[in-house]
């Protein structure tokens, strides 16, 4: 059963990494997965939180950092060493188009996916009911990063799906903790 899942995951990987290969994606995907590409989005979220919510916005940002840190620790320090799955670009016998540095770490789960999904879902929980862009923009951002991880050859699809699930769970839990226990007055005040 596990061998069949691994084979299916490798087939999905090849379909994305090789089957969707094109010159536009070859330029775009390494850029999308680069953490510096998303700095303007981080700055926009910081500006929005502080400008709109003042001190409470600062606490939102702290919770966002906590989401990121918890997702990163869970994926990189607990699960990756425990599962010890090789990255596609390090897997013997697998044909891989590697568009970025492969790295020496393990593959499962994707820390990029878990970290960014934790942040995105945290903000969706906080703002999704009131601002449509607060659902579309974070989810576009995270799905782009997750897809790019597979396309450039450093993660299998199951790695990014698992990382996304871990991150989403962390984002939901911390989002509801923040929303229900730390800012009850803000949500009921009608400030947004």
Summarize the structure in words.
The chain has 192 residues and is mainly alpha-helical. It has helices at residues 2-17, 23-33, 39-83, 111-127, 133-151, 157-182, 184-189. The longest helix is centred in the N-terminal third of the chain and has 45 residues, at 39-83. It starts with a helix and ends with a helix.
Mean pLDDT: 87
Shape descriptor reads globular
- Secondary-structure-derived class: mainly alpha
Taken as a percent bin, the fraction of beta residues is under 5%
Largest sheet: none
Distance between the termini: 50 Å
* Poorly predicted segments: none
Q: Report the radius of gyration as a whole number of Å.
A: 18 Å
Number of strands: 0
Q: Helix amount, in percent?
A: over 70%
SSE order, one letter for each helix or strand: HHHHHHH
């Amino acid at each position: 059963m596990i061998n069949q899942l691994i084979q299916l995951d490798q087939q999905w990987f090849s379909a994305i990494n090789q089957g969707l290969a094109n010159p536009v994606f070859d330029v775009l995907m390494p850029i999308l997965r680069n953490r510096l590409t998303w700095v303007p989005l981080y700055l926009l979220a910081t500006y929005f939180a502080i400008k709109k919510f003042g001190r409470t916005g600062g606490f939102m940002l702290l919770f966002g950092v906590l989401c990121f840190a918890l997702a990163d620790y869970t994926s990189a320090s607990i699960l990756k060493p425990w599962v010890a799955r090789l990255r596609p670009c390090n897997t013997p016998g697998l044909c891989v188009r590697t568009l970025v540095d492969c790295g020496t770490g393990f593959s499962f789960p994707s820390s990029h996916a878990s970290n960014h999904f934790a942040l995105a879902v945290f903000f969706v929980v906080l703002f999704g009911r009131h601002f449509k862009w607060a659902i579309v923009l974070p989810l576009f951002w995270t799905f782009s990063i997750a897809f790019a991880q597979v396309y450039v050859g450093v993660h299998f699809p199951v790695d990014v799906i698992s990382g996304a699930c871990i991150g989403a769970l962390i984002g939901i839990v911390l989002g509801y903790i923040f929303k229900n226990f730390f800012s009850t007055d803000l949500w009921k005040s009608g400030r947004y």
